[in-house]
Amino acid sequence: MVKVEIRNLRKAFSSDSRTTAPIDGLSLEMPAGGITAVIGRSGCGKTTLLRLLAGLEKPDSGEIRMEDAQGRAAAPRTAVVFQEHRLFPWMSVRRNVEVAVRHLPADERRAKVDAVLALTGLAHASESMPAALSGGMSQRVGLARALAAEPELLLLDEAFSSLDALTRRQLYDEFVRIHAARPVTTVLVTHDVTEAVLLSSRICRLENGVIARTYDNPAPYPRSLATPGLGALSEEILRGFLEEEPLL
User: What are the tens digits of pLDDT across the range 160-184?
Assistant: First the structure.
């Protein structure tokens, strides 16, 4: 597991002589093994931040430092789960998961895939094809593929937002169970306040390129909206958005 520290990060994009900086002086700490939610309106820079963490974009300035348990600089194994499951339609569930560990010897590859299929509740569907899977099952396969590589940093890019409300709640509970069994430093990018309070131990509100406020969320797992304190926390976060940029 890694600890992530971001200091004065800036990333700008230029188009038609116009420059925009979705990330502009952002600083943030993400504890090792925790689930940190980055929440904000559509287009506020959440996905840009995730791409910077994944190494898919380079910052213009500032620093992203990742440290191991001994406080040494680390380049962690990183996995991303996207909003779309991005499964290979011609491969079975097992073969889709195997893609993440295809470089390993056959016996080791089989053992890792068996373990992660069992962990994610997919062992019974290992030979199914993506076309036969529900949206929730498909997204679970995407999560299994990410976990198969045993990442030290897991990035979730609106990973549950395309699912219907019931499936989404079921996946929340599944993810909490999986994370407890195999803890990994996780960054959850979302626009959904309910999702953030149910899943994360720290919630960071992204506004105007910076973290406007951080909320710690010590509520025990598993959670529901009836969990003491979560309703008030949700309201506090929503009020923060409305005070920052009123809708009317």
Answer: 888 888 888 989 999 999 999 999 9
Q: What is the 3-class SS of the chain, one letter each residue?
A: CCEEEEEEEEEEEEECCEEEEEEEEEEEEECCCCEEEEECCCCCCHHHHHHHHHCCCCCCEEEEEEECCCCCECCCCEEEECCCCCCCCCCCHHHHHHHHHCCCCHHHHHHHHHHHHHHCCCHHHCCCCHHHCCHHHHHHHHHHHHHHCCCCEEEEECCCCCCCHHHHHHHHHHHHHHHHHCCCEEEEEECCHHHHHHHCCEEEEEECCEEEEEEECCCCCCCCCCCCCHHHHHHHHHHHHHHHCCCC
What's the whole-model pTM score?
Answer: 0.91
Model pLDDT for residues 122-139, shown as the tens digit of each residue: 999 999 999 999 988 999
CATH code: domain 1-77+153-164+185-248 is 3.40.50.300
